[in-house]
Amino acid sequence: MLIRNQRAFAAGVLFLIVSIFYFVMSFNYVTGTPARMGPGFFPRMVSIGLALIAVGILLSAVAPKAKIEKLEKWDVKGLLWIAGSVALFAVLLPTFGLVFALAALVIVASLASPEFTWPGALVNTVVLVIFCVAVFIYGINLQFPVWPVWFR
C-alpha cells in the first residue's frame, strides 16, 4: 500500500489518535441510552464520528487517484506562537478579563503568520473581541470576568 497523500494521511492518523483517546476516556462516565443520555454518551458518539472521518481521510490518502503530496516540514516558530498565545490567555483571563486576554491571544497568535500586518491583526482583534463578548457573555451567559479586576 502506497501512501500517495502524506499530508492527508498524517491528518487522518492524528484524528484517529484523538478519537481513540476520547473514546477511551469516555468509559469513565456512564453512557446511558439515546433516550436517557449519560455524561459519557456525547463524547463517545463524537469520538466514533471522528474515527469514521479519520478512516475516510486515511482511505482517501492511499487511493490510487489521490493527489501526490509530501508532508511539509513543521513550522515550529508558528506552533510556539500559537501555543504561547493560548497559555497567555489562560494566565491573563482571571486578572485582566476576557476583553484584554482575548486581545492578547489574537495579537500574539497573529504573529505566527508570515503574512502578519498590524492593521490586519488589530481589525481581527476588534471583530473577534466584539463577537466573543456578544456570544459568550451576553448570548450564553458564561461567567467570565469581562474587564480587569480594577474596573469591576
Oligomer: single chain
Mean of all residue-level pLDDT scores: 94
- Topology pattern, helix = H, strand = E: HHHH
Work out the strand percent.
under 5%
What kind of sheet is the major sheet? none
From the helix content, strand content and strand pairing, which structural class follows?
A: mainly alpha
The general outline is flat
Number of helices: 4
Rg, please? Answer: 20 Å
What is the percent of helical residues?
55-70%
Q: What is the straight-line distance between the termini?
A: 62 Å
Give unreliable regions as ranges: none
Got a strand count? 0
Key descriptive features of the protein:
152 residues, mainly alpha, flat
Describe the model.
The longest helix is centred in the middle third of the chain and has 35 residues, at 76-110. Helix content is 65%, strand content 0%. Helix 1 (6-25) runs antiparallel to helix 2 and helix 3 crosses helix 4. The protein starts with 5 loop residues before the first helix and ends in a 13-residue tail after the last helix. The model has no long low-confidence stretch (mean pLDDT 94). It has helices at 6-25, 41-62, 76-110, 118-139. The chain is flat.
Summarize the structure.
By secondary structure, this protein is an all-alpha fold. It is built from four helices and no strands.
Topology:
Blueprint: H1 6-25, H2 41-62, H3 76-110, H4 118-139
Helix pairs in contact: 1-2, 3-4
